[in-house]
Amino acid sequence: MLKCDSEQLMSEEVLEIVMKKDIKFDEPVVIEGFPDVGLAGAIASMHLIESLKLEEIAYIETPLLPPIMVVHNGELLHPVRIYGNERLIVLTSEIALPLTVLNPLVKKVVEWLKGLNAKMLIALTGFPVENRLEIEKPEVYAVVSKKEYAETLSKYKIEVLQEGFISGIYALFLKECLKAGLPAIALVAQSFLKYPDPGAAAELLNSLNSILSLNVDIKPLLENAEEIRLKARDLLRQTERVAPSAYRNVEGELPLMYR
């Protein structure tokens, strides 16, 4: 037991949020969109960053991540980055997150957000449905860290899940936010499991638009869906490899053409 505790402390100590800009935050709302089922949250968060022209304000530095850097327009970037401004923060990643990094990363981020006096965290993710091919417009549901937040979501006609299990990084975020007293909501869209799903990402952003009055245009996600799928398929394969247990439980529920 002592060994586990010491390993966890060491993991948290070697994970750092490195600020690139000096920003005076004003109770920011935080959006989390890391790679998960159908990459719905990752696609949505990246589109949100591009649409609102948010600047990179910080990145995650840790040896717990694989030795990968990203190059965009000739600029060298860390793969797990934080974008935003005084009122909005968006967390995203261009690589799949190994299971060993999830707990220390979530704990460090929530601790950092509490220090910023963040207003709320909203996680964006997907959940697999076997008949996704037949669904033209995916439904979006919510999971809340406290029951009273359901009243807020009812105004936007977002149904709150009442029973079941949640897993993955968004479950960790909800748990840590609950412990820290930081309001947290997960928006969960019907999604493909092993197929990048821009349609699910678009519906997540539709719900986010309603809640935060962001007015993000989702048309590019739908019009360029095939291009987005091609760009995202390698990331989805990474996600399956580093977190296979998240997929194994629902393997039997895959649409026939993707088995």
How can the largest sheet be summarized? 9 strands, mixed
Contiguous uncertain segments of 5+ residues: 1-11, 244-259
Q: Got a strand count?
A: 11
Morphology? globular
User: What CATH first level would be assigned?
Assistant: Alpha Beta
Order of strands side by side in the largest beta sheet?
A: 1-3-6-7-2-8-11-9-10
Give the CATH superfamily. PAC-like subunit
Total DSSP helices: 9
Write the CATH fold name.
Rossmann fold
Task: Please provide a written account of the structure.
- The chain has a nine-stranded mixed beta sheet with strand order 1-3-6-7-2-8-11-9-10, with helices on both faces. A two-stranded antiparallel ribbon has the order 4-5.
- It contains nine helices and eleven strands.
- The chain has helices at 2-13, 40-51, 99-115, 149-154, 169-180, 198-212, 219-223, 225-242, 245-248, and strands at 16-19, 29-33, 55-61, 70-72, 75-77, 80-84, 88-93, 120-128, 140-144, 159-160, 184-191.
- Helix 2 packs across helix 6 (198-212).
- The chain is an alpha/beta fold and 259 residues long.
- It has a single domain (23-258), classed as PAC-like subunit (Rossmann fold).
- The protein starts with a helix and ends in an 11-residue tail after the last helix.
- It is globular and about 45 Å long.
